[in-house]
Amino acid sequence: MTEFIFIRHGTADYSNSVRLGLKGHGHDLAALTDGGVKEIEALTQNEILKTAEIIVVSPYTRTMQTATIINKELALDMIVDIDLREWEPDQTYQYGSGEYLGIAKEFDANKGIWPPGTTQKWETIASVKERASAALNKYDKYKCVIVVAHRILIRAITGKNLGCGEYTIFKMPKTRT
After folding, report:
1. Cα–Cα distance, 33 to 49 (Å, whole number)
2. Percentage, residues of the chain above pLDDT 90
3. Could you give all domains of the chain from N- to C-terminal order, each with its CATH number?
4. What number is the average pLDDT over the span 78-93?
5. Which candidate among 67, 72, 118, 138 keeps its CA 20 to 30 Å from the CA of 50?
6. How far apart are the C-alpha atoms of 143 and 147, rounded to whole Å?
7. In whole angstroms, what is the distance from residue 158 CA to residue 172 CA?
């Protein structure tokens, strides 16, 4: 069984995304706050991380910065995996920074499932889980993998709702023989 240490990125600062009026993935260019950096620096002292063989990371700025801070301590190979990106709040990528929270609240209120008889722009929790599970299966040759990702993706796989800079361990059976 592969053990995955899921780490949610540190606290991010979205003020530049809002100030610049960035849409879609432009919103995801947000870097960590100073406090977010400190959250992750403290996390790097956790002995559980030292069992990892590789770091796999979502391609967003806040996760890449988080993984880089962790990797300064661990010096592991690091792979960016696009399929570990966060849930898509608008699959047309036209949402504005200010719209994200409203879409996320709708997603949470519906437990990630489209209301009956509707089609939404946002990605369902089942879709996130399917995409992320397929991505994680690529790393089943390792005993322990750090995955730096996002709240909804981590929840889709583990069922846990992590705060920024928190981690959880999830064991996934190997899929290859």
Report:
1. 22
2. 71
3. 2-172 (3.40.50.1240)
4. 90
5. 138
6. 13
7. 10
